[in-house]
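WARN retry 2 of 3 for item q-0093 after timeout on previous attempt; input resubmitted unchanged.
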Amino acid sequence: MTGGGPQPRTGSWRPQPRQSKLQRLSRRHPFLCVGLPFLTAVIGGSFVILPTQKTKYEVRDSRIKSESIAEYQPKRREFNLQEEYFRMQTKGEWGEWEPKRVERPPEDEPVFDRYDK
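OK item q-0093 returned
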């Protein structure tokens, strides 16, 4: 050995490319470069959308209040059970149906075992 200076490295030493401060910061703290901008966009977007939605509903409410509410409600006749009974009798909907039994498997066939296969 000669001299007291640093020895040159041998082998596959490559100089490291210089990294910017932003690259170093993103490697150390990924939340600052990914999570924080995402949360800022979501929360900021809600503050941007809120006034537009509020305006939309205020305009709609003022339009409805200015017009008569009765115009929006459909004309309904009063419901009377006896009247409906007689109306359905005149249409012939009462006597045209018959109760039908649902077919069941034979008694000797096991019901729950046929799905176990």
